[in-house]
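COMPLEX REQUEST
Ligand: adenosine-5'-triphosphate
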Amino acid sequence: MNNQPSGLMLAGVSKRFGATHALIDGHLHLRPGEVHTLLGENGSGKSTLVKILGGVHRSDAGSITLDGVPVNSRSPRAAMDLGIAVVFQEVLTAGNQSVLENVWLGSHGMFRRRLGRAGQRSITRDVLSRIAGEVPLDLPAGQLSLSERQSICIARALVRRPKVLILDESTASLDVKSRDLLFVELRRLKAEGTAILFISHRMDEVEEISDRVTVLRSGRSVSTVDRSDLSIDRLITDMTGNSGHDQTRRLPHDPGDIILRGTALRLSPASAPIDFELRAGEVVGLAGLEGHGQDQFIKRLAGVAAGPGSVDRILPEGDKGLTERNGDDLGVAYLPRERRGESLFESMSIRENFALPTLAKDRRGGLLDTRNTARRFEAFAQSLSLRFGAGQDAISTLSGGNQQKVLLARWLATDPKVLLLNDPTRGVDIGTKREIYAILHRLSAEGMSVVILSSEIDELVELVDRVLVFRDQAVFAQIDHSNLSTESIVAAYFGQKSEVHT
Ligand SMILES: Nc1ncnc2c1ncn2[C@@H]1O[C@H](COP(=O)(O)OP(=O)(O)OP(=O)(O)O)[C@@H](O)[C@H]1O
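STATUS: Structure written out below.
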């Protein structure tokens, strides 16, 4: 008779990377039939723990058991064989392979053969319809949206019917509809006895789905809290070791002169044209269900997407056309949504990734003064609480949230007049998010204008002067500061106009 507790038990698990102690004495009990959230600041060790469970890293010390049986996965396949399925933080799909092939990528030949092609199709259709709606199985994955590609990664884990399902920030790339569908599916799996380890920096999600929450701080498990005792303040205190991260809702204020103007911008041939004016010191939010035009709109403002209509940067001495090439010279900075591919240089160091567009600031008589680069980087690293080993380390050694902070620092360092941010705090912990909001509040008070596309409604309510909500490739509603609330934004998402919308 096995007296070991059922589920996944971790005791004293630790892992070092060179001088970095990523995980120290990690403890966790994940029970069958629960959603257990792992919460912690960027770099606190969550992904390291997940990668140990998923057979990507080997722990240096400690014990892990599943239903009393030692887990010592030497590879992702070994973990899978034990019934542990992990959806990793980055969206990992092969763009030129079909949706169907992507879902079955990496599974055993035997397992696949047993099901046959027809079986694979029907299981995939069934799983995807539950978590993402209709997705064409034969389309190359590269043609799908980020959210749909993430749903493929989740489906890849689900078709294997795991005992333990681990979702490492998997919701960060999902649109609202798919996230809601996933939560319904998680509740169903939970009722069937699946043990679910959930990681997210979004407190609304943590509150909604968690049965228990374990907090990691600097690689150590510091507390485990039951759903009935959940309080955001308590969780933040456990995460940070102090309680200094107060919410700071933006106050109404008078913006300055027009600094950027979009005229008759059309996001699709049939959609209504959009006129848009951005004033100095304004912070404007863009929102909407995924695929409704807000992403295209911010890309048009940034000059990285083309289409009918024009975007003009209004300079004090008069109008001047904005082109893709001179956007930076005109003080317009754009932070794209996808870290990989769109903005990170994976073969470069942390400091190089930060400094690339601003190296001219470090030239002295034609020579590069790297000490100056280091000084500039250090200042941003401090204000954004960047957790890293050394500036020369490869960017890939940083946790996901810390990579995002380096990119934000890169564009803040250009001293932009207009900062265009495409979902900038995705993967950033709540303490740092609030530090970023404070920085943006300060810079906008000094006259910088910000356009921020965010999938996080609380972030918009806290940060912006007004929100444009997109539907069907057009602006459906503009919600002004005095009417900003979670309810008013969500109502507009789903096409409900109330009298508060202008
Ligand atoms: N391959 C690696 N080489 C060197 N250091 C690493 C490596 N992987 C992780 N680290 C370091 O280990 C620490 C923990 O990182 P980890 O990715 O586990 O954090 P996290 O809690 O998942 O953060 P985030 O919320 O940002 O995803 C960080 O300091 C990170 O820089």
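REMARKS: Confidence is low (pLDDT under 50) at residues 321-328. The chain has three domains: 8-240, 255-331+417-502, 347-415.
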